[in-house]
Design goal:
The chain is built from 6 helices and 6 strands. With 149 residues, the protein is α+β, with helices and mostly antiparallel strands. The strands form 2 sheets. Strands 3-4-6-5 form a 4-stranded antiparallel β-sheet. The protein has a two-stranded antiparallel sheet with strand order 1-2. α4 packs antiparallel against α5. The radius of gyration is 17 Å and the shape is elongated.
Amino acid sequence: MKNKRQEMILDIIARYPVETQEELIAKLRENGFSCTQSTISRDIKQLHLVKELSDGAYRYAVSKTKAELDSSDRLQRILHECCTGCDYAQNLVVLKTMPGLASAAGAALDAKIDPLMLGCVCGDDTVVIIMRTESAAQDLYLEIQQICK
């Protein structure tokens, strides 16, 4: 139940500008989850959520630590150098690389620390990335497309 609730929290804050724990609890109730403020407070801490300024108001978002920012730069460099193509279907993203470089791309993707990414399976020149939702797969696909140009 906890994992499903936390997945729903991540989905909610990605789709809605949630400013307070009370708003988050209300959105969770709309989606069939009943919980207390203390439970939400623990979830926020475990998910490393922070409040960011967006459109003039503070809203919950996933934290971007220095390690995540460094891994993002590394991911961009690796994908820019080795990516030969990318596509997605449902919740899967398929990344084509130059021969022998799929493992490097997969490791960089895994280091990205994306709560919507379940993991990667790497071959010699192909990485299959499993996302939690189809919309997350589409977002990652678009991100990779921008990097690989």
